[in-house]
């Protein structure tokens, strides 16, 4: 196992960079963070549409979430991989199509998490904003969203863990992220699959376990802040 | 864009047969890994409920491995890793049987067992301790209280999460394509490569996935309402 | 009928009951009162061994409840226990809550248990709610169901831990009315409550606890007179101010 790490650690971390394409763990992290950053504003819009007035926009948002949740991510990746270049008329990088697929998929999930954050706020917050004479946009962006997003920070970090795990599907369409690199190592070193996939699993585990511990820690902090507020209300 | 849709071409003869075979494989993987996963989840929950540190640690480690490593990698570990542990003769025999689908079922079932046991555990934890106290003060034994008061509430509390896991599992069966199981998305890709009918091949596979997903969602909402535990 | 002899209990280093000596006579109603943290709830929870004691003895009808041949579950099924928070089982309907002890402890069939449970619900005035779920009935109704459930095995004693404290004011009356009726029927009862008017009217004896010590044990007339212990008079005037 140590020989494999000794021989391939650089490949595992950054792929063939700087002599070839960037890859490995660095690529996995780049894909994951970019996906989360692009997903976030889309998810906020979906959440606003889902929690807004009933009507055509709410129906479209509902339809989007409901339909995307019914499709395996792998199918979305196939669609993005084959259909996107055909629609736009020129070939694009596989990593880009992977990000497109993850963003579409995660917008449906993160959107629901943020929507739950919005509906979980006490009704009095909106009423107080309305009583001050604030319109819809300032109410949402100055009063509701800052609180809702703060309360769902653990959920957002948890989605980052999910995205990191989902990015491994890039190996199916030859995106040179961590899993793809190790699959190639495996085909070089035919006789050591258990060690190679053990190392791969361990790298993901350390990354995701750390993030999920962070999620738990954030959850405790944020919920203790919330219960702290409740206690103050009860005393007053 | 001069693309001419021709669903007829994909929906007949050899291609139709491939799609149906793929659907069958998808359902076999889904149903078997669901059943095995659920049974294992119950076993894990019981083991973890017993106050014995070493076994509790082992279950926790099992759960954390399956939650923090990508599903795809878990499949690879079984498919590539497990085979080298076995003697060649056994491997040949397994491969004749179609070992890929077996590895896929094992990997998905273990993964779901980890998640579902967590759902059961949080269902158990969300029952107020006073329920146990009330049951004991009636004169029920610990086992009687578990059997008639605690568990009937626990599975109802866990049900929505378990149904959510069921949908995730169904969609997750598509990953079996990566280790060569000829399920629905594998067949879609094969047909696309053979016929160059990208939109038709993926369109039909996607439509089938969506139909079954919607059925699972619909059933989930009915069951969740039917068995909802309302606590004041 | 129930006798406490030098009963003491500790939570870790903290002593919560100090040498309690007292007797509850058969067919009487004993009310326990005292400031919060005085040990009154702990004391009644020792009766069915929900709280173990570390010193002293408790006897029920002359038998030590910690005797070797006593099965704790048989002991408990002979003592009705009512909680402040009702603790109905939310997955069971009202009548199923009352049937549960008959089905699972007496091992009766549903056909046997149901009429008996219905009769008990009739007794507490809730026959028409038999098929409702606990989530769909009021707090007062929930507590009456809990009382019906605790009486279904015909216990020797009914023990109630602040049965009206979790109720909205307008629902306290219906529960107290039921307790009055049960007391008139001659059921032996121990009840922790802050309802001093009820205590004065119904109780045969009132116990006052403070810091785990039973400081005063008297009939209501003496309890509410000026001869009562100074602690009792302070407590009563504090209770009156709050009401």
UniProtKB/TrEMBL annotation, chain A:
Q: Boundaries of each ABC transmembrane type-1 domain copy?
A: 25-215
This protein's GO cellular component annotations are: ATP-binding cassette (ABC) transporter complex
- Looking at the record's lineage, which domain of life comes first? Bacteria
A molecular function annotated in GO for this UniProt entry is: transmembrane transporter activity
* Principal location: membrane
Chain ranges passing through the membrane? 25-49, 70-88, 94-116, 128-150, 196-218
Membrane-related topology note:
Multi-pass membrane protein
A Pfam entry, by short name: BPD_transp_1
Its subcellular locations are: Cell inner membrane; Cell membrane
The record's Gene3D superfamilies line, in alphabetical order, gives: MetI-like
**Keywords in alphabetical order:** Cell membrane, Membrane, Transmembrane, Transmembrane helix, Transport
Which family does this protein fall into? Belongs to the binding-protein-dependent transport system permease family. HisMQ subfamily.
For this protein, the record's PANTHER family field holds: AMINO ACID ABC TRANSPORTER PERMEASE, MEMBRANE COMPONENT OF AMINO ACID ABC TRANSPORTER
Q: What is this protein called?
A: Polar amino acid transport system permease protein
TrEMBL record, chain B:
Which is a GO BP term held by this UniProt record?
Answer: amino acid transport
Output the CDD domains linked to this UniProt entry.
TM_PBP2
Q: Which GO terms describe its molecular function?
A: transmembrane transporter activity
Instruction: Name the SUPFAM superfamilies on file.
Output: MetI-like
Q: A Gene Ontology CC term for this entry?
A: ATP-binding cassette (ABC) transporter complex
- Residues of the signal sequence? none
Q: Does the keyword Plastid apply?
A: no
Membrane topology note: Multi-pass membrane protein
| PROSITE patterns according to UniProt | ABC_TM1 (PS50928)
Family affiliation: Belongs to the binding-protein-dependent transport system permease family. HisMQ subfamily.
Protein name according to UniProt = Polar amino acid transport system permease protein
- Its source organism is Rhizobium wenxiniae
TrEMBL record, chain C:
Domain ABC transporter, residue spans: 2-236
Q: Which PROSITE patterns match?
A: ABC_TRANSPORTER_1 (PS00211), ABC_TRANSPORTER_2 (PS50893)
List the signal peptide residues.
Answer: none
Q: Which Pfam families match?
A: ABC_tran
| InterPro entries per record | AAA+_ATPase, ABC_ATPase_HisP-typ, ABC_transporter-like_ATP-bd, ABC_transporter-like_CS, MetN_ABC_transporter-like, P-loop_NTPase
Keyword Nucleotide-binding listed: yes
Can you provide one Gene Ontology molecular function annotated for this UniProt record?
Answer: ATP hydrolysis activity
CDD domains for this protein: ABC_HisP_GlnQ
Would you say which domain of life the source belongs to? Answer: Bacteria
Q: Which UniProt keywords are given for this protein, alphabetically ordered? A: ATP-binding, Nucleotide-binding, Transport
Task: Indicate whether Nucleotide-binding appears among the record's keywords.
Answer: yes
| Homology family | Belongs to the ABC transporter superfamily.
* Protein name in UniProt: Polar amino acid transport system ATP-binding protein
**Species this protein is from:** Rhizobium wenxiniae
The lineage is: Bacteria, Pseudomonadati, Pseudomonadota, Alphaproteobacteria, Hyphomicrobiales
